């Protein structure tokens, strides 16, 4: 598999405007470059076009003006290296955990034997081997989300698009999932574009935070988000972390007021 | 399992009460047997004439089952058409309501006039009144798939056919069963209605509807009641067969089937 060499950025937005019909644009003049291996969180009030941003990168909807390049390709052509993780787990209730994890592989025509092998290792990765034969309705919210993540990772994506994936979980579970996500990222090193409402989550996870302003959606500010401490659960208790959260919160408030 | 036993016991207790009330009414109000025969007389004639009763039951059951099965096949095909082509749905969907509003009792003689006598016109009448619930529910199931699931399939470049096969159809199965459950009850009614108008090829031998008319004409009131009980029983059997199939196919994953355990 191709590893990041820094030559082509993973996602490039140049002058992207998106408008539905004749209404005000949802997104206006977005310029954003995401390099390989970055974890970029997008944060902003509702209606600022955060989710639209992800849909554009995945090619589920088209730009009105400007262009998006995903690893140098158009979004529609880059789908093989991109996986989308939705706010709800979007599992197929009639398939058991194993077959849900293998769904992407199945749709892409991977043989059953190879699928089996991959599913096993993915289930181990997200620590769900013990419920392989269970159906989604038997799982807790956190477990469902882990199945959803395993399914997204099955096709070996280089880029992950995540649309508030942990918003429906309680705070404890969300924190644990955040740590889990970073552990997985340590092993697979994807580039991530992550949409969230939670400042703390954005600060904990990302290497860079983009604050969007609404009406029309546009980039308000970008914050480099590096820490001297390792990103473990303890990081949340550090003053460095708290200051960063306060700083981003301030920026976000500014966007709301304006 | 314990729950199921108590369900059966409850139902049996209610049935016993009903029979008791029936008998009491006859005693108290001195109702003559030609108006309301006592339950024991009905049971006696049912046992004595069980062969002809069974034949009637099988004829009607067969016609209702055939009509229901045909309506499932045709209904699902029409629903698929409706789901794939929005304009077809918009144009024709209102007319499926006609299937429900048309007074089947009025149309049945016409159908028999066109198709002649025998089991097929009866089946056809059952088919017609079963069709609308199947179409409506299955269409609903096919088109109400969550948007994000569609997106997920699109992200994997799934073709419309695969989307239909792997996403829309399985999603529609619980909805289809809702339709079948509704139709299973009216299938029996439809078949009996058809038989009321279809003359039998052999005098005295026919489905429940025909036999009810015949028994009425012969003033065999005991047997008439036995036939009515048999018709009710047939409706029950249909309902439970469908409920079992629903449980069998859905209990692993679907909430509706799971809640049946509790009932």
Explain what the structure shows:
The complex is a heterodimer of chains A (258) and B (263). Chain A is of the alpha/beta class. Chain A has a domain at 20-91 and 157-257: Rossmann fold (3-Layer(aba) Sandwich), CATH 3.40.50. Chain A has eight helices and nine strands. Chain A has helices at 50-58, 97-101, 103-107, 112-125, 141-154, 171-188, 199-205, 239-257; strands spanning 11-18, 27-34, 39-43, 65-70, 82-85, 159-163, 191-196, 208-213, 218-224. Chain A has a six-stranded mixed sheet, with helices on both faces. A three-stranded antiparallel sheet of chain A has the order 2-1-4, covered by helices on one side. In chain A, helix 4 packs across helix 5 (141-154) and helix 7 crosses helix 8 (239-257). Chain A starts with 10 loop residues before the first strand and ends with a helix. With 263 residues, chain B is mainly alpha-helical. Chain B folds into two domains: 1-31; 37-262, MetI-like (MetI-like fold, Orthogonal Bundle), CATH 1.10.3720. Chain B is 84% helix and 0% strand. Chain B has eleven helices and no strands. In chain B, helix 3 (50-84) runs parallel beside helix 6, helix 3 runs antiparallel to helix 8 (160-197) and helix 5 (104-115) crosses helix 6 (119-143). In chain B, 35% of the residues are buried. The chains are: A alpha/beta (258), B mainly alpha (263).
Q: Supply Rg of chain B.
A: 22 Å
What is the CATH architecture assignment of the largest domain in chain B?
A: Orthogonal Bundle
Number of helices of chain A: 8
Q: Portion of residues in helices of chain B?
A: over 70%
Any idea of the CATH topology of the largest domain in chain B?
Answer: MetI-like fold
Number of DSSP strand runs of chain A:
9
Average the pLDDT over all residues of chain B and give the rounded result. Answer: 89
CATH top-level class of the domain at 20-91 and 157-257 in chain A: Alpha Beta
- CATH architecture assignment name of the domain at 20-91 and 157-257 in chain A: 3-Layer(aba) Sandwich
**What percentage of residues of chain A falls in helices of 4 or more residues?**
25-40%
